[in-house]
Predict the structure.
Amino acid sequence: MSEFEGIVNGHRDGHGFVVRDDGQPDLYLPPNEMRAVLHKDRVKARVVRHDRRGRPEGRVTEIVERSASPIIGRLLQESGVWLVAPEDKRYGQDVLIPKGATGSAKAGQVVVIELTEPPALYGQPVGRVKEVLGDIDDPGMEIEIAVRKYEVPHEFSEAALAQSRALPDKVRAADKRGRVDLTDVPLVTIDGEDARDFDDAVYCEPTRVGRGKGWRLLVAIADVSHYVETGSPIDVDAYDRATSVYFPRRVIPMLPEKLSNGLCSLNPEVERLCMVCDMLINAKGEIHAYQFYPAVMFSHGRLTYTEVAAILQNTRGPEASQRQALVPHLLNLHDVYRALLAARERRGAVDFETTETQIVCDESGRIEKIVPRTRNDAHRLIEEAMLAANVCSAEFIAQGKHHGLYRVHEGPTPEKLETLRQYLKAMGVPHTVGDVPRTQDFQQIAHATQDRPDAPQIHQMLLRSMSQAIYAPENQGHFGLAFEAYTHFTSPIRRYPDLLVHRVIKAILNERKYHLPALPTPGEAHAKLSKRLAARAAAGAQKARAKLSAEMQGWQAAGLHCSANERRADEASRDVEAWLKCKYMRERLGEEFSGVVTAVTSFGLFVTLDSLYVEGLVHITELGGEYYRFDEARQELRGERTGIRYTLGSRVNVQVSRVDLDGRRIDFRLVRPDDDLVLRALRDKAGGEPVSDGPARGKRPAKPGGAGAQYGNDHRRGAGSAAAKASRPGHPSGNGRSGRGAAGKSRKGKR
């Protein structure tokens, strides 16, 4: 049979998979095939057989390239032999460390190693200690591990730091030339209490638009491009990072602190350079006209969402009395927000309210509590203002016939669409989605079901059916927001695509062309995303891409790089949050909580606790002593004997039975099943007649960990359900179900 190339994806249970370059289904590798390879190695392989379900099983025929990724783990000494147990269990083998290669590391410490000898069929890999991170219980160790595990750039180059130090501390007279002076306009920033960098400011005043009333809305964005020149050392480092990465209590910034928190940040009562989107919006919330221009501004206030929401609710309250001069302008902002919101509803944009959470840590990095983030009118006001500016920037680039990066959000894939249709039909929803889905279809279903008791799970399935947004030079619209063209303009301090958009807008204003610099070699994340997108594309689209100009190919590479690094940042953040939550729940072993089923798979239920907002698995072996059948259309598990059903939104009581810190895994055990519910299910099944046979109480594992015994065997956590797979990342536009932690920015985010 023919050979093909791919990347090895190891599994904690010893087997692995080859993620094929050609986009075909992953190839299963049994444990004996994994002895000579490691997670992330590039190999050639071939199919040798298919299992009973038709899934391919293969054999590695050649190791093309060993992964250069560092391995992080704990240094251990067993019977006089030094070895490192990898923290990422997808590396299925411990690494031997010769006596002279341990450096200054001590037993039990977390270290970074590099391989000196790869694994062989009959020999373990050998390595040397490259870096000592410290003890596993050191504050912030989970972040140190994550940035290396996901290869997040976390140290600026000396050249970038030197260039940063040479920058001025404030705006100079020469910097103001050719700019509009807006220092007398009462622009304000509105952010969270814990925000440190302020990249957007807003101002609104009523005005005549055409023959009717309307508003002039100014969105001023930090002019990062003035200080970060194309190809400069800071620019090279910023492109490499592509985004800031937010962890609880720590941020890995895209730009050096002198820029991100100082010279570019729109701090209160100091002059700052900015790029302005100046819009006229009519009473219907439609953008009547707009213009872009460079300006110099003076923030008249650093406001918080909580403060602004309080002022909007009570203009005579204590918060309003402290900001009397700004209150009229905030009311104007609220008025234009309501008009924009009405236009959004007419447009049919999808807007589901999801529960985002925030991890609050103490000084040592230990979780104190996990709290829900509540969105108020101040959050929504800023979001609508940013959306308006982003739409204008996309239209401006398109009309200027210049290459740039759009924020593209495609509609559901045919597979996800069919899963959604089957679910809506099974749930008795009177509306469905056509073969060519429209955003209005989703909005209509959301409105039609909003008063149903199962509305949360229906809306959850609507969200899961969508794709994730990416950056691309071809404008394909934004499905979720129902925009024909959309881009990211409003956060150049923390997102590289926004910085590129600023440069393109400036080039158009100056009647010239912006040229991308020579881009570094794409990384592994870029390559993975590129292949995944290529596999989804039609053959015709592939041929069309092959004919693209070198310039367009460069923009495509930039879009893929930024999209992939956004995914990497999300994965690193989720990994740290999962580690913190596991450590938090380890102190609650044996305790009981109420919760709601938030995902259903063939191997069990994922339950989110009501009070702690932590998710864990109730394995199918914990649901009772009978056979449960998984119904993917209904997203439910149903007992064949009792007929009892567990579906999205089901309320359950669980006990914390097991916490695996290394595997980032929490297992629950079902407790106190509802006897009435079971009896009712039995009566329904018997046609309403009483049933004498009582419900089975289920099996309890004989030892800790039994509940999760089969959990690790499911490829990619949810192999039985397309919806379950899609549920892990959260919002398809990038807004995850879990928040970004105390340092995070939940709004203005990733739509």
